[in-house]
């Protein structure tokens, strides 16, 4: 996968974790950011206005925009996606390149810096007794891992903080703080970006719905 080459200013929206995070890189290696633990439906736009006031930019100035496609909060991710689509459709964003990145890649960037030379896998809970996972040897291939398989893996396992957890596991999971600022402050942050045509949430598991078939007892049909 070729490395992304965003133009600046680059606006970054991360609404996938319990911490809504908005950042801007006005020129290469110059990151400014704000965050909040309020609901993303309110926090995203409040943080954006705050950052605009601090760094004196308008949305129309933004040359590139990056958003967290997941895994993480479905509601938070959809809010960011809908915001970008709205800005594009109303021409507030014009000639703006869109990039997606995922939570696991951000966590992996932080972990690799702190644990060089060690095989690592970053995970978040995916419900249904399974985990979203990204390994150091395949940093662009997020996948689902069954809990039983996770418990048998010999690699060092890191569980991202600030993401929901439901699954009980005997795997040796080490907590890892989720800090987008640690990733995007590094020149190599472009490795986590992937250019996209249309913003949308990531899907690691296809939703399956049971078809409802109406059934009637003979005496109920008159």
Briefly, what is this?
The chain has 222 residues and is of the alpha/beta class. The chain has helices at residues 40-55, 74-89, 103-114, 147-151, 180-184, and strands at 10-14, 20-25, 31-36, 64-70, 97-102, 120-125, 130-135, 138-146, 156-160, 173-176, 194-196.
Question: Care to describe what's here?
Answer:
There is one protein chain. The protein has 222 residues and is an alpha/beta fold. It folds into two domains: 10-102 and 181-196, ATPase, nucleotide binding domain (Nucleotidyltransferase, domain 5, 2-Layer Sandwich); 105-176, no CATH class. The protein has five helices and eleven strands; from the N terminus they run βββαβαβαβββαββαβ. It has helices at 40-55, 74-89, 103-114, 147-151, 180-184, and strands at residues 10-14, 20-25, 31-36, 64-70, 97-102, 120-125, 130-135, 138-146, 156-160, 173-176, 194-196. The strands form two sheets. It has a six-stranded mixed sheet. α2 (74-89) links the parallel β4 and β5 (97-102). The longest helix is centred in the first third of the chain and has 16 residues, at 40-55. The N and C termini lie far apart (63 Å). Residues 207-222 have low confidence and may be disordered.
């Amino acid at each position: 996968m070729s490395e992304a080459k965003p133009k600046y200013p680059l606006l970054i929206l991360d609404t996938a974790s319990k911490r809504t995070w908005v950042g801007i890189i006005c020129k290469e290696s110059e990151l400014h950011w704000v965050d909040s633990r309020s609901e993303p439906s309110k926090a995203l736009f409040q943080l954006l206005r705050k950052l605009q006031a601090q760094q004196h930019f308008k949305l129309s100035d933004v040359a590139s925009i990056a958003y967290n496609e997941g895994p993480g909060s479905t509601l938070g991710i959809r809010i960011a996606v809908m915001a970008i689509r709205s800005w594009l459709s109303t021409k507030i964003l014009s000639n703006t390149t869109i990039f997606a990145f995922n939570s696991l890649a951000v966590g992996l960037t932080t972990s690799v810096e702190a644990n060089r030379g060690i095989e690592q896998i970053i995970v978040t809970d995916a419900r249904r007794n399974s985990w979203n996972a990204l390994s150091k040897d395949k940093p662009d291939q997020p996948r689902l891992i069954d809990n039983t398989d996770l418990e048998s893996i010999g690699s060092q396992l890191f569980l991202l903080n600030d993401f929901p957890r439901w699954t009980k596991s005997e795997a040796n999971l080490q907590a890892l703080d989720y800090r987008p600022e640690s990733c995007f402050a590094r020149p190599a942050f472009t490795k986590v970006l992937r250019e996209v045509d249309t913003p949308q949430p990531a899907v690691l598991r296809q939703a399956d719905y049971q078809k409802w078939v109406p059934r009637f007892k003979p005496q109920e049909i008159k």
